[in-house]
Amino acid sequence: MHAFQEKILGNSDDPFGVASTGLTWLPKEQHFGITHENRLVAHAGLLRLPVVIGDAETEVVGVGGVAVAPGMQGQGLARLVVSAALEHARTMGPQHALLFCRPPLVALYQRLGWHPLDEDVRVEQPEGRLVTMPLRTMVTPLHDDARWPSGPVRLRSLPM
Ligand SMILES: CC(C)(COP(=O)(O)OP(=O)(O)OC[C@H]1O[C@@H](n2cnc3c(N)ncnc32)[C@H](O)[C@@H]1OP(=O)(O)O)[C@@H](O)C(=O)NCCC(=O)NCCS
């Protein structure tokens, strides 16, 4: 697991509750954090990912590694750190940000302005395998005129 998440959530085997998916994930490239009394207490990571939506080849900003320290949850820190990450994502070019989450977190991200995708989303895995993402996929526009294209979604990379 990445050092940032371990600092926040401790070194449990499955801090995000996604180990049962058996998926291989990409590390994030840009990291946003909140510190409290010299300790990292919240994190969100970003990277650009190539994606095919219908017949459109495009890119999205993938968001992942969202974590808030157990003693600091429920105080708006996820909202704050995800907003800071998205503010930067608006300067990166892609029209949308995309994340994967467990079903119980869909309502939380909806509260932050994200929308669940009804489409199945396929993602790459090692050895070029394509698998259907078992988690929920959520997207949010990064620009006022952004419209999510219709059609099947295929990430041309590992998920993040
Ligand atoms: C999930 C997690 C990141 C949330 O962090 P948090 O700091 O507690 O979240 P916030 O306090 O910023 O809450 C964000 C918003 O969602 C709302 N919310 C929280 N739980 C909710 C729920 N079950 N249903 C609907 N809304 C919910 C909050 O009220 C808040 O909305 P508001 O700002 O309008 O009041 C944190 O609990 C965590 O780190 N969990 C373990 C790791 C994990 O599962 N990460 C997710 C990987 S995708």
Task: Explain the overall architecture.
- The chain has 160 residues and is an alpha+beta fold.
- The protein has one domain (3-155): 3-Layer(aba) Sandwich (Aminopeptidase).
- The chain contains three helices and nine strands, in the order αβββαβαβββββ.
- The protein has helices spanning 3-9, 77-89, 106-111, and strands at 30-36, 39-53, 56-68, 96-101, 115-116, 121-125, 129-132, 136-141, 153-155.
- Strands 1, 2, 3, 4, 5, 6, 7, 8 and 9 form a nine-stranded mixed sheet that branches.
- It is globular, with a radius of gyration of 15 Å.
- The relative contact order is 0.21.
Query: Biggest β-sheet, characterized?
Result: 9 strands, mixed
The tally of structural domains comes to: 1
Beta-strand residue fraction: 35-45%
- State the share of residues found in helices, binned by percent: 10-25%
- Label the overall shape: globular
Low-confidence stretches: none
CATH homology-level superfamily: Gcn5-related N-acetyltransferase (GNAT)
Mean pLDDT equals 95
Write out the distinct hetero groups bound to the structure: coenzyme A
CATH topology: Aminopeptidase
Radius of gyration: 15 Å
Q: Which CATH top level class fits? A: Alpha Beta
Give the CATH architecture: 3-Layer(aba) Sandwich
Count of DSSP strands: 9
Q: How many individual helices?
A: 3
Run of helices and strands: HEEEHEHEEEEE
Structural class: alpha+beta
Distance between the termini: 12 Å
Pfam family, one: Acetyltransf_9
Protein name: N-acetyltransferase domain-containing protein
GO molecular function, one term: acyltransferase activity, transferring groups other than amino-acyl groups
Organism: Streptomyces alanosinicus
